[in-house]
Please model this.
Amino acid sequence: MPETTYTVTFAESWDAASRTGGRELSPGEARARDAAGLPYAVVHRAPGREVPLGVRMVAWQAGVLDTWAYDEHGRRTAETELRLLTDERRLLVRSLLVRQYQDGRTAEFDVDAPRTSVDLAADGTARISHQPEGMRGASLEVEVEVAEEDLWTARPGFDDWPGLPVADALPDWVAAQLVSEASGWRREPSRLLGSTDFDRVFRPGTHIPGLTVLDPVPCGSVRVPSGVLAVACPQSWDREPRITVAVPPGTYQVKAALVEVADQGYGSYEDVLAVRMQIGDAPVAAWEMALGPRDDTLRLRAGEAFGFDTDGATGAFGDAGVWQDLRDQLERSNWRGSPEADKLTDSVAGMHLDGGGLGADLAVFCTGGDGVYPVWVGRSASGEVVCVDVQTAFDLDIDA
Model:
């Protein structure tokens, strides 16, 4: 990219998702921050274009240089992480991620958008993951040796920024691997699609190793007028739910999968293995992991999953449009002598909150412990949402 086609400005910080920076810095202020190792952003812009071409977030004291490239629609097309290790003169190219979008209407991070990621290590090895059909498709993966000149890059000086446009495509050595027939690619199943059949634990009489499925237990109904279902910990400090699922506006039943667990040490006992919000009646053709903002399955290792975090061993189904209001009402309902206490009732899975005038409700369930809990969306053969499930008794293996 010729130097004359873009300009460089500086900011205190940068939010990659909203494409907004902190306070604008003069070149002198940015130079001083660079010398002191303090964070600052280098923003590359083209005349007449609203969104930047790319941004570099620099923090030499922390050994960090992150970059993002944007297309004309403001979508991130490439991301790079570079890190200073023991050598202050060069940077390790730690990871690369490039996305492709079918057209201008395709949303950023669309699950069907092709993507390629590269994770590199200082020992000269790299793992390439390529999803030509997006997250729902299989991933082609290979481990390769990386040449020294491809693994490291010189640490840029402050005066180098104007001549260093942000890369918006894969390096030549990665592109060559993608078309090589001798690369030893292996095909891995989609990390977005789950292998567990949750319908089994809602089918009375089904026998799973160590478990006998009992009749599912109703846990109340939840109004979702906004058409965006939130699944998150109601006690989280986050004001916005991390996991949301688009559903038709309506009122939906929640039920708990009750199982009898055979335990040789303590005898049999009953446990809630999963909770479900029922959206439709069609058979489930595929189970798909619900994703939060900026979640990309290429970043997942075997056995890992995205989900919602809880430090209080609880999760909840509720309307995302009034999520904070529902959480506030839940807290008030728990106060001693609260006039809203009658809005809160017990359920087999946890509690149910009647949101009253909010026009929405909250179904709270116990997760069985703290940690990250994946949310699985059951979809019909046509792709419509049939149900939304969370496995709560995490120590019980229903894949066996």
Observations:
- The mean pLDDT is 92.
- The first strand starts at residue 7 and ends at 11.
